[in-house]
Specification:
Shape: globular
Largest sheet: 4 strands, antiparallel
Strand content: 35-45%
Strand order of the largest sheet: 1-28-27-26
Radius of gyration: 25 Å
Number of strands: 28
Helix content: under 10%
Structural class: mainly beta
Distance between the termini: 67 Å
Order of helices and strands: EEEEEEEEEEEEEEEEEEEEEEEEEEEEH
Length: 353
């Protein structure tokens, strides 16, 4: 990639969820804290509100397409919703008919083989699974701690394992969520687990797992049995999201993380980290990320004030870059005008004689 970060036209919307349409990544979707779904049909250049707000302005906490790419799901603070017309109209999936409770939904994951299987995480009631595209649901994982908060879910197709970052640490299920294994024994006791991501999701090494916490990143090379903390400067950072670059078909797949100081990238499986490009506002947090646009060539990152994209469509010459140049041009123009005027004044008496 070339160029710099650029703020998109989607600004001041407090976006916390991003998704690209699988069969057309130029179609992008964003969900904000007020329950509004936004859509861009031109790879992020322009955004517009899509449909009415969900659940009376309930925060959208996760947004994702199913395996077929036909149904869009929104996990919100007041329920779970699905749309079969790309966000124009929504169906509330909670209620007695579906056995899905009216509660706060926080996470989504899908089984790539059993395409009708959907996993959802909640703020206080654990994990639910549907085997029929969301028509009916059942609660799974009775061995999870009561009132556990599911912060994020990830499904590893290669091992058929479901991972969960929770308020009680990191868990793994080897049987579609029916039972869970607590994998926090080798982690610090005061750690807050925010996000977990198996590297094979993006074509990385089997058994390699990334963990984002309030104390930086941790990696496991043995499927979560043991963890190693990422190197400096990561240990002091709050990690809110992890994205495996599925476009790269190589041994070491690039990894992106959203942190409280912005997005970072690693090309050596999380051992060292660097900024991705210039132009990211200093100290601005990065909340969630998605690859989209033509051939998935653009990285989109939601922050506090806007959705940013890299590389920017202006080739790195945004307003912030042009202002210093314009100021210099104006300054030299005024100086030239002043010198020319002064020279004319000096020459005026000679003409009178």
């Amino acid at each position: 990639m070339g160029g710099d970060w650029q703020a998109s036209s989607l600004q001041k919307s407090e976006v916390r969820a991003l998704a690209a349409q699988p069969d057309d990544p130029n179609q992008l979707y964003a969900g904000d804290q007020q329950g509004q779904i936004w859509n861009s049909s031109d790879g992020g250049s322009h955004w517009q509100a899509r449909g009415a707000k969900l659940a009376s302005g309930s925060a959208i906490q996760s947004l994702a397409f199913d395996v077929a790419g036909k149904n869009l799901y929104a996990a919100t603070a007041q329920g779970l919703f699905s749309s079969s017309d790309y966000g124009r109209n929504w169906q509330n999936l909670t209620g007695q008919a579906t056995s899905l409770p009216q509660t706060s939904y926080t996470a989504l994951a899908f089984d790539d083989v059993r395409s009708q299987h959907i996993f959802v995480g909640t703020a206080t009631q654990g994990v639910y699974v549907s085997g029929d595209n969301g028509k009916t649901w059942k609660r799974v994982g009775s061995d999870l701690p009561p009132s556990i908060q599911i912060k994020q879910l990830a499904y590893d197709l290669t091992s058929r394992q479901l991972w969960a970052a929770t308020s009680a640490g990191v868990y793994r299920s080897d049987n579609q969520g029916e039972s869970w294994i607590n994998l926090t024994s080798s982690l610090p006791g005061d750690l807050q687990t925010n996000v977990v991501m198996p590297a094979p999701v993006g074509g990385g090494k089997p058994g390699l797992i990334y963990l984002g916490t309030n104390k930086g990143t941790f990696q496991s090379v043995d499927n979560g049995a043991h963890w190693e903390q990422g190197r400096s400067p990561i240990p002091g950072l709050q990690i809110s999201s992890i994205l495996v670059d599925f476009r790269q078909q190589q041994t070491s797949v690039p990894i992106y993380i959203g942190t409280n100081i912005g997005p970072l990238r690693s090309d050596d499986e999380g051992q060292t980290w660097r900024s991705i490009a210039s132009g990211w506002p200093k100290g601005l947090p990065a909340y969630t990320m998605a690859l989209g646009g033509k051939e998935y060539a653009t990285l989109f990152v939601a922050s506090r004030d806007a959705v940013y994209q890299y590389p920017g469509t202006n080739g790195g010459f945004g307003v912030d870059r042009l202002l210093p140049i314009l100021s210099a041009v104006v300054l030299f123009g005024l100086l030239y005008w002043f010198l020319q005027r002064k020279q004319k004044r000096r020459g005026a008496p000679d003409k009178e004689r």
